[in-house]
Amino acid sequence: MSTLNIVNKSPFEKRTLEQCLKRVGDGDSVLLIEDASICAVAGTAYQDQLNATAELTKLYVLQPDLDARGFTDAKLLEPVQCVDYTGFVELVAQHDRVHSWL
Amino acid sequence: MEEDEYAGGVIKKFLYVNRRQPHGTVYALESLETVLIGAAFDQDVSMLFIDDGVYQLKKEQSPDGIDMKNFSKTYRALEMYDVEKLFVERESLEERGLSAEDLLVDVEVIATADVKALVDEQDVVLSF
Amino acid sequence: MSIEVNGKSLETDEEGYLENLSEWEPEVATVMAEIDELELSDNHWEVINFLREYYEEYQIAPAVRVLTKAIGKKLGKDKGSSKYLYELYPYGPAKQACKYAGLPKPTGCV
Question: Which of A18, B97, C26, C84 has the largest CB neighbor count within 10 A?
């Protein structure tokens, strides 16, 4: 069974990302959007935690949110895959349920 | 909704994840109202309290002094709405120096490691 | 909208529910019933008083299914039936009786 977890808060402001990551597991996915998109970039304080999560869980980031924040050409974490809006919709369709961590 | 039993509809499993304190924002109250509506439509409803959400169930809340409604009393009505599956995460309680005895309803205490299994049983997950 | 009770004007919403729950007094129920051309019997009052106590305890106006069950428990099986409650409150026991009792509309009713 798989859940698409969506996080939209910056981990530098809110703890939503950490709260989500400690409760996901095998087969789940985490999609970083809006203010959470910046932690897909390599070199933040959250990279080790995200890399560790990626051993069981797929990681995605919404490209338009990275573009908007000036990270179009930035080096991203190895396990993170970029998606556009169509890819977002496909992810929703591929999973059994969506958990939006508002 | 008409005042008769909702019959013949599809019953789905709903999990409401409560992650915020009761009075600082409107999330907790909105969640509770959504739960009651879901239950009135005979859906299979569970609630999970994690992180600051565990404070929603704290005994002896008296928010009169901050001009808020004491909706903590309403959690004790959930049983009558056949909402009987209330889960609270042990680690969230412990981090806050709380235990199940501090809560105003009977709950099932589960570990962080069990949350995924609970989520995996659901058709719909709503986070507040 | 508003209703006149004991010389005071009390605000109601577009469906006739009291805007300010603390303004309720028994006369409110009587006046609302008169508008619906209904005379309140002891049986009506029993339900109204039950709802006032229920709200005090749980801070919520119960849905009809819950009300029926709870009345049955408190006042006996005969009274805990939709038939009995609909005879008293033909517009719907939860909605109409909650209105008379000064409560908000039950959650889950559109």
Answer: C84
Question: Which CATH code for domain C2-100?
Answer: 1.10.10.370
- pLDDT-derived band at B6, boundaries 50, 70, 90: low
Residue spans per domain, chain C: 2-100
CATH homologous superfamily of B13-127: DsrEFH-like (3.40.1260.10)
Dmax (CA) of chain A: 35
Res. C108 pLDDT band, cuts 50 70 90:
low
Q: How far is CA B1 from CA B4, C16, C78, C88, in A?
A: 8, 18, 26, 20
Report pLDDT digits (tens) over A47-92. Answer: 999 999 999 999 999 999 999 999 999 999 999 999 999 999 999 9
* DSSP alpha helix (H) spans, C1-110: 26-35, 42-58, 64-75, 82-88, 93-100
Is C98 catalytic? The answer is no
Q: Measure B125 CA to nearest chain C CA, in Å.
A: 20
**What's the pLDDT at A1?**
81
Interchain CB contact of B68 with C (< 8 Å): no
Q: Please give the ipTM for the structure prediction.
A: 0.86
